[in-house]
Amino acid sequence: MKITAAVLRGEQSPFTLEELELADPGPRQILVRIVGVGHCHTDVLPRAAMGFGTPPIVVGHEGAGVVEAVGSAVDAVSVGDHVVLSFDSCGRCRNCREARPSYCDTFVERNLGGPGVDGGAPLTDADGKPVAAWWFGQSSFATHAVVDVDNAVVVDKSLPLELLGPLGCGIQTGAGAILEALRVPPAASLVVTGTGAVGLSAIMAAKVAGAGPIIAVDLNEKRLELARELGATHTIVAGAGDLTEQIAAVAPAGVDYGLDTTGLPAVIAAAVGALTQRGVLGMVGVPQGDLVLEPMALPVGRTLVGIMEGDASPQTFIPTLIALWQAGRFPFDRLVETFALSEINTVEQRALAGEIIKPVLLPGN
Questions:
Q1: Beta pairing partners, 191
Q2: Fewest Cβ atoms closer than 10 Å to its Cβ: which of 189, 197, 280, 309?
Q3: Beta strand pairing status for 275-284 and 152-155?
Q4: How far apart are CA 123 and CA 188, in angstroms?
Q5: pLDDT of res. 287
Q6: CA distances in angstroms from 143 to 33, 43, 63, 146, 306, listed in the order given
Q7: What is the CATH number of the domain that holds 268?
């Protein structure tokens, strides 16, 4: 079928809206009309020449929409269902069977390669040439996407689909890091470095968990103001002094938990130094350079752990986040601003500049 998609044709090229041909869904796949799709920093990876997604490619991996067709072997999802899309996983390896699909044995190939391990859902351009179309199992910067049925979470039709897409990655990552990966208990102290969508989601989740004090660190004072409104009890403006000492001024015995969303080695090292002797620091994303720690940073019992997609299983965790939002306990909608898909290049620039926390593109507008 003919669809419209934002195509990235080169590492330094702008996105171009193009008419493409999308293959029909396979036996275990569904066709989804995209209502809203979040822009995530991970969607910039194909620009970095790191081997993650080679242009021409359609990215976008925080989609939500309406099911328009289902494959011959699909029975759990029906035409007309409303769904939130998340990452791809095999469902068969040990980690998938243990409800940790973000550590699927083939996660990188399925989500960061472009075509996927099974060829995905082929896209071709006006010249009949292929365009990579399986970014995180969806490539949803488009009017339509074909996804594996297991990557779609059915949600109530009364919910605002244009808001829900980011639950499939960025918001899931931040909240899951606190509630699933670190399992922060009530009254535990916590520092979150970086208050973008992931960090702010972590702060909201920490409030749900009953943690305290909750310390937010960022360069952007407006985001720190929002962090306080969403659950942070203390805020620190980064770069205004020694970060470890600033955290210690709030939690003299050290913080029990930390979550770094910046990837900055100096920030990570400072957060490790602020932990209690048995404290745990989670990291989302890849450190932007060599990470150097003091010789005694870890031997005293501290733990440094990498976290992918919040350690969450989308089929159960996304409904949990929706229920918390409905109860007024997880106001993730305060992070969202909506834009037409045609505004994608401006949105990307503003998001990278820190002007927008969580932009959501509306392909139907």
A1: 215, 258
A2: 280
A3: unpaired
A4: 48
A5: 83
A6: 6, 17, 10, 11, 34
A7: 3.40.50.720
Q: For residue 53, tell me if it sits in a domain.
A: yes
DSSP 262-319: S--HHHHHHHHHTEEEEEEEEEES--SS-----TTTTTTT-EEEEESGGG--HHHHHH
How far is residue 140's CA from residue 345's CA, in Å, rounded to a whole number?
Answer: 15
Flag whether 138 is in a domain. Answer: yes
Same domain, 302 and 217: yes
Domain count, the chain: 2
Instruction: Report yes or no on 324 lying in a domain.
Output: no
In the numeric block, which tokens belong to residue 276? 């209690």
- Those residues with Cβ within 8 angstroms of residue 241's Cβ, 6 or more apart along the chain or in another chain: none
Q: Are residues 153 and 219 in the same domain?
A: no
Q: What is the DSSP string of 120-137?
A: -S-EE-TTS-EEB--GGG
Q: How far apart are CA 65 and CA 155, in angstroms?
A: 10
CA–CA gap between residue 279 and residue 128 (Å, rounded): 55
Average pLDDT along the chain: 95
Render 108-170 in DSSP notation, one character per residue: HHHHSSSS-TT--S-EE-TTS-EEB--GGGT--SBSEEEEEGGGEEEE-TTS-HHHHGGGGTH
Confidence bin at 121 (pLDDT 50/70/90): low
Contact 295, 272 (CB under 8 A): no
Distance CA(229)–CA(252), nearest Å, equals 24
In this predicted structure, what is the pLDDT of residue 52? Answer: 85
Q: Are strands 123-124 and 130-131 parallel, antiparallel or unpaired?
A: antiparallel
Inter-residue contact 281 to 258 (CB < 8 Å): yes
Confidence band of 14 (pLDDT split at 50, 70, 90): very high
Q: Write the pLDDT tens digit of every residue in 275-334.
A: 999 999 999 978 888 999 999 999 999 999 999 999 999 999 999 999 999 999 999 999
Confidence of residue 111 (pLDDT cuts 50, 70, 90): very high
CA torsion 327-329-334-340 (nearest 10°) is: -50
Closest CA to 297 of 282, 283, 281: 281
pTM of the model: 0.95
CB burial of residue 194 (10 Å; 0-12, 13-18, 19+): buried
